[in-house]
Write a structure and sequence with these properties.
heterodimer; A: alpha+beta; 2 domains; six-stranded mixed β-sheet; 2 helices; flat; B: Butyryl-CoA Dehydrogenase, subunit A, domain 3; five-stranded antiparallel β-sheet; about 65% helix; transmembrane helix (chain A); transmembrane (chain A); signal (chain A); Myelin_P0-rel (chain A); Myelin protein zero (chain A)
């Protein structure tokens, strides 16, 4: 019985890649960066096939307000080719590892003109059917505070303070009760029930 | 005595409801085609009615936090009132209840004051303050009076 199940699962696993869903490419959704900083745009893919030697990565860039995208990076035949004429010449570096399905690039010294959409397309022959994935780059002078961070911290601080005051109040009451109990013990000498660890004062 | 108690509780709950409504409803500033509050800026353009999240400044978040804190403190005050009603000894004062309610009124006052001070940036020329903003200002004296009554009130039999 078990062997039949094992055989069936192995056969199914063998069949499924033949009807593969194609290549699935992952990049981020949106990236925030400060002017003048560097940013690493990551791109990786999932494919049922083994990583082939002819794997290719290409990055293209469409500026905010521009109508078409220009190609800025291409990796093929085992060698990366970076932009040497366009807006990113001398600012683009390939930091990925195609053997590990990583086609990330590094953009240096960002400027406001780099706001736009970066699209990564990867192909893993014979698995070439897939949709390219895009990541939006937003360049800020200073990174804005996310909505709700200050709200949550103010509420948390006040409620935490309240809790602290309550705890301290009950703790003080507890301490005072102990001291009062100890004082009465030393005043009247021996008492019927003594508390463990109570100090006897002379 | 029971009537007095009922009146005080109704006052407290009225202040609480006003705080809730003021925080939630989208009517802190209203214009001819737009309305906005602490959370969203909504506008009715020819495309329809859509809302965008309020700009993520520090002050608007402070107002959000203060309004939420005032609601929380008012709730705690109501809860403490019922606790103290049954556990306080005769002649005792509802001091803790009153303190929490006064804190709630101070928080809503701070929130409304911050919103008023920042109104040149948040309320543009063609817009005016909405009714939720006015309710916030009304909730402040209501909560303050309610808190003071609790502090003065003595438990009778």
């Amino acid at each position: 019985m078990l062997t039949i199940l094992a055989l069936a699962s192995v056969i199914l696993l063998g069949i499924v890649p033949q009807q593969s869903e194609g290549i699935v490419i992952y990049t981020g959704w949106e990236r925030h960066a400060l002017v003048g900083s560097d940013i690493r745009l990551s791109c990786s893919f999932f494919s049922w096939r083994w990583t082939s030697d002819d794997v290719t990565f290409s990055w293209s860039y469409r500026s905010d307000g521009a109508r078409d995208a220009i190609s800025i990076f291409h990796y093929t035949g085992g060698a990366p080719y970076v932009d040497n004429k366009g807006p990113f010449r001398d600012r683009l570096e390939f930091v990925g590892n195609p053997g590990r399905r990583d086609g990330s690039i590094l953009l240096k010294n960002l400027d406001y003109g780099d706001n736009g959409t970066f699209t990564c397309d990867a192909k893993n022959p014979p698995d070439i059917v897939g949709r390219a994935s895009s990541v939006r780059l937003l360049v800020f002078e200073k990174v804005p505070i996310q909505a709700g961070v200050i709200t949550g911290s103010i509420i948390g601080a006040v409620l935490g303070l309240l809790l602290l005051i309550v705890v301290i109040y009950y703790f003080m009451r507890f301490l005072v009760a102990r001291r009062v109990f100890n004082l009465s013990v030393s005043k009247h000498g021996k008492k019927g029930k003594g508390k463990e660890g109570s100090q006897q004062r002379q | 005595m029971l009537l007095l108690l009922l009146g005080i509780v109704i006052l407290h709950i009225a202040a609480l409801v006003l705080l809730f409504v003021s925080t939630i409803v989208n009517a802190w500033t209203t214009g001819s085609t737009s309305s906005s509050d602490l959370w969203n800026n909504c506008s009715t353009t020819n495309g329809g009615y859509h809302c965008a999240p309020a700009n993520t400044g520090e002050w608007i978040q402070a107002v959000q936090a203060l309004m939420i804190l005032s609601i929380i403190f008012s709730f705690i005050s109501l809860f403490l009132f019922f606790c103290q009603l049954f556990t306080l000894q005769k002649g005792g004062r509802f001091f803790l209840t009153g303190v929490f309610q006064i804190f709630a009124s101070l928080f809503v006052m701070s929130g409304a004051v911050i919103y008023t001070v920042m109104s040149p940036t948040w309320v543009h020329g063609s817009e005016a303050f909405g009714w939720a903003y006015i309710i916030a200002w009304v909730a402040f004296p209501l909560a303050l009076i309610s808190g003071l009554i609790y502090v003065i009130l003595r438990k009778r039999e």
